[in-house]
Design a protein that fits this description.
With about 375 residues, this protein is of the alpha/beta class. It has two domains: about 70 residues, no CATH class; about 270 residues, 3-Layer(aba) Sandwich (Rossmann fold), CATH 3.40.50.150. The protein contains twelve helices and twelve strands. The protein has an eight-stranded mixed β-sheet with strand order 7-6-3-8-9-11-10-12, sandwiched between helices. It has a two-stranded antiparallel ribbon with strand order 1-2.
Amino acid sequence: MLRDGYDSRMELTPWSVRRMRQWLRHDLESHGVPHAPLSADLLLGNALGVTRTQLYMRAPDEVLDEGALRAIRERLVRIRRREPIQLVLGEWSFRGIPLEVSGCTLIPRGATEALVEAAKSALSGWLSQAPPATACTIRVLDIGTGTGCIPIALLRELRGGTARTESTLPWSMEAATAETPPPLATIDLEGEVVDSVPQLDRAELRAVATDIVPEALELASRNAQRSGVSRHMEFRLGSVWEPIPQGERFHVIVSNPPYIADGEWDALAPEVREHEPATALRGGPTGLRFLRPIILGAPKRLVGGGALIVECGTGQSEPVKALAAEAGFGTAAILDDEDGLPRVLVAHLGGGPPVAERLGDIRQEV
């Protein structure tokens, strides 16, 4: 049935859920696939159309039908070739939000959580200062939006969502190693998020998302529609500042740009190096090819007191802080990601809500 190390005599025994799960784990481990137990569960659950939690609740002796076996067979070939499980399944969750993913752009990662948290803090400062009973618009720009995961998460969490969503996938590989995936936001039958950040009652939060890849913008637009935030987003095609007219200003600018230095490229896992687009990853000889113009150009596109929040490489803290000082930012801090690695630059212009001092685990300030 599945060949490649599989004894055909085993066909005499039906493929039960338990037997398939054990076999997949062993097979993926033998092919060097990272997080093999997780990938096996996700592959099997996807073939059965159930979440990982629901997979554990299935009768272990339940026999898989031919449709499920066919789906596993087709996807297993790709995973054995070290194609990321996210791309094989076509979906991945970020902060509990299921997103369509494809090879045209970067797969959302847990390291970007720190960027979202910093941006939430910055935007919350502006939203909390909105005068009562006064309509105003707080604007955030995402440069190189990819799947749209950053602005979609910000809008969902600061506005509250409007779409019923459920994912069969966890929001990060790290969170998924637990036997039970983290809970998603609870959404009632009317489509309103429960236990989320309350709906904004006066200030309007809007996002502009840019990308140089047309297919990525189309993907981000579909994800925004699916997540119920599309009417609060605008999508523009172009590189770095090209889509932003002179004089347009934002309260917060975020970006997860390509920042992998050329010398680090060959050391990346095959799942990344061979299957995710180099244009979304490679940042030139020093990794600063895109970080430099973003940081230096941001002050002219921010309102007074605005914040620039960008993801960077773990060895780029000093260069990006130096660029922030050169650009004229009043303060600059490096925040750690979920693995304790320096990952996010928060640079703040004077005259607005404090950002850096409200964030956890600030490593250094300029």
